[in-house]
Design brief:
heterodimer; A: 479 residues; alpha+beta; 3-stranded antiparallel beta sheet; 16 strands; B: alpha/beta; two-stranded antiparallel sheet
Amino acid sequence: MKKYETVIGLEVHIELATKSKIFCSCSAEFGGEQNDHVCPACCGMPGMLPVTNKKVVDLGMTAGMMLNCDINRTTTFDKKNYYYPDLPCSYQTTQWFAPICVNGKVRIKTSKGEKDIRIKQIHMEEDAGKLVHDDWTDTSLVDYNRTSVPLIEIVSQPDFSSAEEVVAYLERLRSLLRFAKVSQCRMEQGSMRCDVNLSIREEGDTKLGVRTEMKNMNSISAITRAIEYEVARHIDALENGTEELVQETRRWDDVKGKSYAMRSKETAGDYRYFPDPNVMPIVIDDEWFNSIKASLPEFPEVKKARFIDELGLSEYDADLITQSRAFCDCFEEAYKECGEAKEVANWLISDCMNMLNKKGSTMDQLKVDGNALGKLIKLVMESKVTRGNAKKILLVMDEETIDPEKYATENNFIVSNDTANIEKVIKEIVASDPKSVADYKGGKEKALMALFGKCMKTLKGNCDPQVLRKILLEEIDKA
Amino acid sequence: MKLYLTKADCDMTNAVALDDMFLTKAMPTTAGSKMLDSYMSLFDAEVVTKLTDAGYEIAGKANVGEMAVDLLGETSYEGAVTDDNGTLLSASAEIAKEAKAVLCFDVNGAPRRAAAINDLVFVKPTYGTVSRFGTISSACSGETVGVMAKTVADAKAVLTAIAGHDDKDGTSLSDAQCEKILTTEKAVKKVAVAKSITASADDAVKADIEAAKKALSDKGIEIAEIDDEILTKAKAAWNILMSAELCNNVSRFDGVKYGYRSENYTTIEELYTNSRTEAFGELLKTMIIYGSDVLSTDNYMSFYDKAMRIRRVVAEKFAEIFAEYDAVMLPASSKKTFTKADTDANKYLAFDENLYTAPATITGLPAVVGGGVQLIGKAFSDSALMDAVQIIKEGK
């Protein structure tokens, strides 16, 4: 039985987190009503000229720096010519001659150990539109919302030898790029897309086998399934001659669990690349370069180690928080304000996570201001606000910018120090429920809870639970 | 037919017309092509806004050759404009004789030829000083908005209204740079006549050159001759760059979104092919094929890349010349009369005539035509050139 090895190269397309498109000021936001985020430029109408969105170059550089690339200090945009209905100008503006980043690497960890995946280049380009096929009328409609949304394409060298390595790489890419706020990297929304170029050869062979490209894998697990299927298909073809392997692009069907040869999108003709004369070469001077370098975040694993070693967080907590840049930023600001690392971690991991899960939001969509969270935690620690009420305030903090103390005061969340009132309320409730008092004295703990609950409710939760319990027990004794 | 679209009740002395490469909301813009017959733009070109702000009326649209790359407008879908003898007339030139001025998009020298032939003034300003926002892109690295008028004063007045920085045009220069073209920093004192280029024109054109030389030297301006061998290379280079950029700029006209769509198709490929085959003229189709060829992988380095290098060499030659001289004088065309028979016999006459107009187009240098001759100067010397042309006109 011959032994085979797999050779894989990846082309990952990332939608950049900019407000507007690459060459016009239309919104680059995902979704929107069809053909709403459009203008004459991104619809291929005559007369509008491309004006480069600086943020696109900023993020291109950021991505390159996060992935250990060399930055091309003079970089140009070039036109790639082909016809397709989702391409309104019949060309895509991309980078052919001088991409913004070259020669990077990403270190991945798998069950077999650590490995560096080399990055050939990263280039900036514009996205195409979306075709919507209407089976009822047998027509195809074009939605140009996505045309000219800025992308970077990260091209790896064919350094992968397994699906496990591919997954590790994609997860690492996603972590780094989300951390640097380059992109949301959500495969289900198309802000991260991966094309797999795969071939196999006999172990020890140096010549590359026939390569096939696969598209349309919409999740990381789908990529694993696609790779496993395709490797098996290649091996089957070579061993048993079930089919002839040709260099082609194939579409992965996750429902059927198979790949199918795609009808060629465009005649594999000449793209006739040439530099766009309307877009001046982008020259990155030292000032610009250094400002981007200074803006890079600490790498997530460095932060995680610091959280564990210096701040005493558990491995689990540190790991979870460093999944998200928003969580990290919130944690660090909150910690700076209140000095209690474990408290802040708890608030983030249980209360904030619960809140986000209920809303169906991702970790990176956390809006709570870290400094405000720190202040809120201090209020709880100082017993000025009960934890229950603090959770209510937290919900508001994810919607608007508020000062927790001010908000608590305005909304009566500050724990009452009016002992006289507390005693009065407790006396009344104890007097009104002699059965519960008797039950408790008879040994039923639940009865105490019932009385406690009634008191807390009457006091609108505005009482330190320790204080309430103490006075309640005193009153029960007297009764 | 001169104007193909005019505004009624227009005070022509204060009105500026536009050739049909400028997008207007109020009137269709066709670029002289069946592909854009009755195309209505959603916005005005920047120069239209600036003209209106400066108090000018827009007189209407002038018939233009398809994508403005032909000899004198003969490839317009609206038809060639000729007189009874079959002489080709330029619609812009005809209107310029009545209106204050006509804005023309100089892509391949047609407005300069028209001005020289009709004894009008045409100013092709320094590239980047007038916004191209709202023009139908033809060959972006050289195309320039210019002003055609009866007098230098009128041309300068209208140029003053339209020059200036525009954020919406990525090749637009700063306001400070744009303003330089309106003031003569250094008057023209020494003029170099391009030797071989001038020698290749006919006697009538040569006579205009002689008259211009005399008018200038009568005012104490030194005239010399220069070896223009390198400048002659601009012709082939611009034909390559222009065709390549043009074929890319018209690829958006695919019959899908707007404009002409063929009625004969069953597949998307047929929709593309038939729409473009039926709607584009011969010259444009030829340039599309040629442009695609020079951009193909096999040919890119020896054609397109080479043409960009020739551009650099020509620019450096001009810099060398302008270290000693203030202007280069040369004809704008090989003769003073072109007929329909000429263009029927040679559809690619505009490619040949590029000998005279490509040097300024490919380098983006300012070129001013008046008294039947063309003066090219270094960047931002537009005003000095206009003064010199004024002298030439007064001397005739």
